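Hi both,

Apologies for the delay on this - the queue was longer than expected. I finally got the pyridoxal-5'-phosphate-bound model through. Below you'll find the protein sequence and the ligand SMILES exactly as submitted, and right after that the structure tokens for the full complex including the ligand.
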Amino acid sequence: MNPRHDPRLKAFASDNYAGVHPEILQAIVSANGGHQTAYGDDVYTEAMQEVFQRHFGEQARAWPVFNGTAANVVSLRSMTAQWEAVICAESAHINTDEGGAPEVAGGIKLLTVPTPDGKLTPELIDRQAWGFGDVHRAQPKVVSISNTTELGTVYTAEEIAAICAHAHDLGLLVHLDGSRLTNAAAALDVPMRALTTDAGVDALSFGGTKIGLMYGEAVVVLNPDAATGVEYLRKTFMQLSSKMRFVSAQFEALLAGDLWLRNARRANEMARRLAEAVGRVPGVRVARTVEANAVFAVLPEDVAARLRKRFRFYDWTDGEVRWMCAFDTTEEDVDAFAAALAEEMADTRR
Ligand SMILES: Cc1ncc(COP(=O)(O)O)c(C=O)c1O
């Protein structure tokens, strides 16, 4: 069957626009055939646990779910009682882009803090870490950070360790939204556990879809004392996959070798190339340092409107646009995009 779309066309809107990496697709095919016990009691899910433990330590336990919003809601719910709250950056995905799911579906109060670059610090956490014992205030219980952040920035292992030490001193737990943890680790050239387990993170939403899976993310509990009931909450939140072997097989393929790293490095490299190329176009300003696979830029609105007809991308906050590279973005894609941008800019100046 021929595809209904032109598979040569790439967008710079989101790493979610990319298809499935061929090695992941092959893993799904290999897991097909015959019968396996449903709901996670299968050999693929068992093998997946082992690869997660290799990355995050023997105490780690991974629970596949369908998407990133669910990974966040299930992990945060498992870390909080009904009267407890989560401190996060105002720009955090859980606050800006999940349709209120943490509050509406999870019943979790978010306590937000404005940040210049999407990153919390111990000082910024203190703006919301107060009112302990006050029966009128939702009790702060978890600090949630994203790595990479929604503004494309990357927390270093030292920054995360400082956040965890501060949070733990206050009796708070730390959750990391690792929708793009692979990109962060690749950018810093460190193992993923340096940014999570070794830094003191208690639980993690691990992203698979943006880095080559067809679908699937995982709640990864790193500190077994920090989260309770994940096994039950998955069903409560409609996240217990019956044919779980197909999610688990994808994670095994991503994490058993270096596929995660190859994919993340490519996406990051392409963003660097893109930033250099568009930075050379007069009238275009790269608005933020490119630390992983996102480029934020400012350009005239009419140029953005015309360019968007050729390549999809999104407007971001503060008059910026976001251009995102994926594991399958090529040098040719980047160069074609930069050339199209230069053409549209020249048309505007004429
Ligand atoms: C930082 C972050 N967290 C979580 C998600 C997961 O969202 P979804 O529910 O669309 O898989 C995304 C997706 O864009 C994200 O960027």
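Main takeaway for now: The chain is about 40% helix and 15% strand.

I'll put the files on the shared drive as well.

H.
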